[in-house]
Amino acid sequence: MRAVAARQGSKWFSEGWTVFQQQPATWILLGVIDLLATAVLYELPYASDLTAVFTVLWTGGMISAADRCRTTGSAGLADVVRGIRTNFQPLFAAAVFGLLIAIVCDLTGDRASSALRLLAFGGAGNESSLLALIAGALYLTAALIGTMALWLAPALIVLNGATPGDAMRASFTATWRNGSASLVYGLITAGLMLAGVLTLGVAMLVVAPLVYLSTYAASLDMFPPK
User: Fold this and answer.
1) E strand residue ranges, the chain
2) What keywords is this UniProt entry annotated with (predicted)?
3) Structurally, how many domains does the chain consist of?
């Protein structure tokens, strides 16, 4: 792993955009599949947390397709499926960790909302208020750890052959040590997601695959191939 400058957080998107431009129709199609699958899982009773499992598996597939597109100039759904199938066991192990994080966030989510209201408007300082603050802290901790550990883990599994544990530890360490670049990247991602909402989801057709492609670029930058 190598340390990078803060400006790399924006460069990852420009590098991802370069890959996107090689096969724009294909990447948009893959983005549509991603969004539809996520929406279906989210709406199914008792299945919303499975979106975490799907996201990790799909990220692995998209990383595999991105790598093929960068080296050959072409990619397709078959490359995504092949990437998932070839690396299914380690990707699924990482996905289980993502599922556990999602469950923790679900269990503490309502309390976390209460904690935010308490911090914003003040609370009575009673036992329920304390529990709400504790739940809020657990929610934020789980969400932060999960995001940092899983951001680059699928890429490290697919591209570097890392074990799930090593991949998640390396992802967490890389995000921590490159905090400024990761923050820039996160802010840009949030801005693009907001653009997706403001355009009634139209921009998400590009934003969704671009997030995966920029993650691919970030992985290559922080963990350059030997």
Assistant:
1) none
2) Membrane, Transmembrane, Transmembrane helix
3) 1
